[in-house]
Amino acid sequence: MSITCELSNLTSKKAKESSFDKKWLKKPLLFLVLCGSVVVIVLVMFSRLGRIQKEETGSCNGEAKVLYRHQNVTRSEIHDLVSLFSDSDQVLSFECRKESRLGMWGNYDITCSLSMLSEKQETGGVPWNLNPSGLEHSVSSTSRMCNNLEQNLQQPEKLEEEYYEEGLDQGLSSYLRNAWWCLILGVLVCHKIYVSHSKAPTESKERVHMQEPLAQKKQQQRAQTSSRGAGKWRKNILLLGILGGVSFSVWWFWDTNEEIIMKRRETLANMCDERARVLQDQFNVSLNHVHALSILVSTFHHGKSPSAIDQKTFEEYTERTNFERPLTSGVAYALKVPHSEREKFEKEHGWSIKKMETEDQTVVQDCVPENFDPAPIQDEYAPVIFAQETVSHIVSVDMMSGEEDRENILRARASGKGVLTSPFKLLKSNHLGVVLTFAVYDTSLAPDATEEQRIDATIGYLGASYDMPSLVEKLLHQLASKQTIAVDVYDTTNASGLIKMYGSEIGDISEQHISSLDFGDPSRNHEMHCRFKHKLPIPWTAITPSILVLVITFLVGYIFNEALNRIATVEDDCQKMRELKARAEAADVAKSQFLATVSHEIRTPMNGVLGMLKLLMDTDLDAKQLDYAQTAHGSGKDLTSLINEVLDQAKIESGRLELENVPFDMRFILDNVSSLLSGKANEKGIELAVYVSSQVPDVVVGDPSRFRQIITNLVGNSIKFTQERGHIFISVHLADEVREPLNIEDAVLKQRLALGCSESGETVSGFPAVNACGSWKNFKTFYSTENHNSDKIKLLVTVEDTGVGIPVDAQGRIFTPFMQADSSTSRTYGGTGIGLSISKRLVELMQGEMGFVSEPGTGSTFSFTGVFGKAETSSSVTKLERFDLAIQDFKGLRALVIDNRNIRAEVTSYHLQRLGISADIVSSLRLACTSVSKLDNLAMVLIDKDAWNKKDFAALDKLLTFSKITFTRVPKIILLATSATLTERSEMKSSGLIDEVVIKPLRMSVLICCFQETLVNGKKRQPNRKRRNLGHLLREKQILVVDDNLVNRRVAEGALKKYGAIVTCVESGKAALEMLKPPHNFEACFMDLQMPEMDGFEATRRVRDLEWEINKKIASGEASAELLCKSSSWHVPILAMTADVIQATHEECMKCGMDGYVSKPFEEEVLYTAVARFFEPC
Amino acid sequence: MDTLIAQLQRQFRDYTISLYHQGFLDDQFTELKKLQDECSPDFVAEVVTLFFEDCEKLISNMARALDQTGNVDFKLVGSSVHQLKGSSSSVGAKRVKGLCVTLKECCDSQNFEGCVRCLQQVDIEYKTLKAKLQDLFNLEQQIVQAGGRIPQVDI
Predict the structure, then answer these.
(1) Considering chain A, what percentage of its residues have pLDDT values greater than 70?
(2) Residue A589 touches partner B, C-beta closer than 8 Å
(3) Nearest alpha carbon to residue A936 among A982, A893, A898
(4) How many CB pairs under 8 A join A and B?
(5) Which domains does chain A have, with CATH numbers?
(6) What is the chain A residue with the closest CA to B41?
(7) Whether the predicted model's global pTM rises above the 0.80 cut
(8) pLDDT tens digit string along A984-1012?
(9) Most exposed: A29, A484, A574, A884, by fewest CB within 10 Å?
């Protein structure tokens, strides 16, 4: 119970906590409180109920006991009497009906026995018509009866004791059970609190996390202080709870102890009363018997003539009925003899009346009646005529002569009832005793007879002496728990001087119970004092549970304390972690800021360095100086690219890199890459070839810059690791093409897959290469066709080289950042080894895989897949537009490709096909001679340098020249060379044999240039692009500059004006929006990002929205004529002007629809590259 | 006459170089100078004047904002400082720009005293720069008046 109390304490405490902490805890707490109070109430009720029940059973038992006793006593008494009379054949009928106030059954039983007896008498034969119990009762011997009596008496007592103990046990165990339940509950609650507390900080943490750092700090501090306050508050509550628990346990102990003492007192009273009652009852029974005896004497001695009783009969009868009076030591009958009849009496009996010697009472041995003196002359005498054997010595003794007896006799005959003497030492036995005297009257007196009438009617006295100690002892002996109780019996007739009739000194005097005794003599008062023999034992029943409660209180307190401490530590830890997290985040932010800053800070000077070096290289330098400058320039470029790579890596690692999704022409990108790297490849004499399968769509949707980055990286690596021979071959196929090797239609792919397997396989340069299919055989998703979306295509890109290959032991780690095949690689070839790792991650971002196969000494093939979107056919790619015209020119032309390597010829024909030129392939000049005649309208002959042969060519040339009839014009002869110096080229051209030399790698722009020069000779030529500069790009262009800063605006204006642009300036995003509302004639817009009111992002977004709407109208034909513009739709290029070059800003620029960005302040190079995309010269 | 011009030209060159070396100006000023040509002969002067006007306005703005003890509008100060930073970097006023960066940091951390201190420094710095550039322009003018050509100064 104390636990539940404690619990409710705690829960209330929690409720308080929760009120300022969290509300969700309230409901369960309320429930717990309810549970606790219910448990308390139930427990209290049970304990009370148990007590009442116990009391009831106790009283019941007492009554039953009394009942038993009465029944047995009466029964045996009657039985004995009847047996005596039936033996002596003096009694024919006997009526005895005992009035029983205790219960009908007892009454019935007795009646039954008696009737049986009378039946037996009458028939004198075998008993019949009686129940077995009755029989048993009637024939059982006296001793058996006594045993029964004792047993019956003791049984309930024992029962009671057992019950009591059992009840106690039950009570204790239920307490224990409750206590354990409470403990478990407490632990659960504890756990719950802990959990809730550990959960709460995380919630708050999350909340905190959302806030600004400053506010965060503040809130943290606040949270800290509040949590500390809460901790203190909790501690106080816990202390209160423990105090409550302790006081409850003390109260419980006190209460239980009180209860025990009360119960003890009650028990004592009960037992005492019971003893008194038993004694009284016994005494009364005895008294009744003596009374009966007196009536017997009166009836048979005085009523009969001659007397039916003589000394012998009396002696025998009294001896035999002595068990009925277990309390009397003896009975005697004295006759009332007046002095006038003394002589006659003496004569009659033959002895003289003797005087009772008071002093003789102490000397038992001398108690011989003959020694007594004759009684002195008195008015009347009461000589004993009959006496029980035990007291036969008093026969002939005059009872009137004893002081006590005389008084007794006088009172007895006056009252007609049994009277008692005060206790005195009995003759012979020397015990304290009392004498009971009954008067015997000669005639039956009326109940309302006067005293004189009684005195007159008196004919004798029947006396019985009671030996009090033995009487009480015998009685008490029959009762249970006699060991625990000490009994004193006092005669309290004289209030001032109590006479102790029985008793001992032992026992605890402090608590005793006094019960009054009524022995049937109203003039005498007796009392019984009962007390426990032993002192109150240590009340374990009170101590154990309260100690248990105490222990549990402390335990729970300890648990809660621990929990609170834990909460405190967890909160502290959480706080610390939060701080650490904030610091870590700050460090992370600092890191990215650092990277951005450093990249910016390094890039800016690096641009300076590179620009200056470029300028320097343009000046008049000698070879050595030029070399140095070139080296410096190259290193600078490497450094810049490294910085970019590191930035990329960092971004990919933090998962911040997002791929663009724009439509782009893959072939164009590949052309770009090949032209970019052609310089290096040509330097090394490596043949670079690009092939895109015809099944790959022209335009795909993806991230062109990242795609380019991967290709560039792979090709760059290949170039790096390929020495002076062989080729690098980039090919793009659909993954579907490769998946089914048996149905390959693509000639190039077929040959490559056959590589190493059969004779038909060959490579671009003729140098052996590894079979590419090994590089994609480990791709997991390659062969699965599950994401076979109609709008997605999977491309397989392979880059094959004939380089040194990757050592087998290093093949496992080449995708690890900064891990090259071996440490010597970086010394030999340079590079950091970060490129492949970035490429792989980029490929993974494209939902693809990257793999490679490599054979040291033969070469490597890297391949990767990537998922791209299919572009809608309507979306046009602007880059192609400028070639459109040229392509129109070439469409339908025929070409002959002479190449001894089939695969290379296929690559060439692929490039020709892009221009709309159909190509036939022959493997040698000689074969060409035979086939050329069959070809109509041949526009050009492309001869690979490997197939070049002056002798054979002469034949072909002759054939071509002289067959003018078949050709409308002489086909142009174009030589394809991997590398050729300027002098070689001019030599060849001047020889007149060939019209043009094209340096591989083949790419669209180069081919177009070449063909235009040769085929459309004399027509207007393309302006030399190299001489283009900003002036040309920006001249006469309408440009809008948006910046809120006047100075910046002026500077930008100045810079742009310098390049010939017509600049308009506005100072806010809103104004810009107004200006850019179609129709307008601005061709570009430079927009500051940070502006008040409407920043650059917002302004751009709005402009784009406007344009989108107008475009929609145009598309649907709603737009008025003035809205129509030169191109099909409105899209003014917007370039952001920003001071920082953090990539995130860049990405955001792109996201909101900007086309690029230039760093502020303008630098010529940056401006050029940014603007060039939009202002290709027309 | 020629000697005077030569002297002035040398003086101009030295002065310019000292301005760069002492960190008053940076490359952007050079770029600015490059933008000045026949079409816009007073481009630099115009821009610089604009800049100083801008400076004055912004500084007074900030001073006013910082004057309100109790509830300083750091946001206002921040945006002003941002503008000032942008202009100073456009002009190439290196020191002012550096101070602006510091002031921005102070402003971000709501460091009132730092802001005030920085602002004072900015004030001093821009006035110094103004004086110096005034001297420079004066020199230029003298050269032009003397009939000389303004020399190209490579840093």
Answers:
(1) 65
(2) no
(3) A893
(4) 58
(5) 272-359+366-532 (3.30.450.350), 580-657 (1.10.287), 658-780+791-819+832-871 (3.30.565.10), 895-1016 (3.40.50.2300), 1030-1175 (3.40.50.2300)
(6) A1054
(7) no
(8) 777 777 776 777 778 778 888 778 877 77
(9) A884
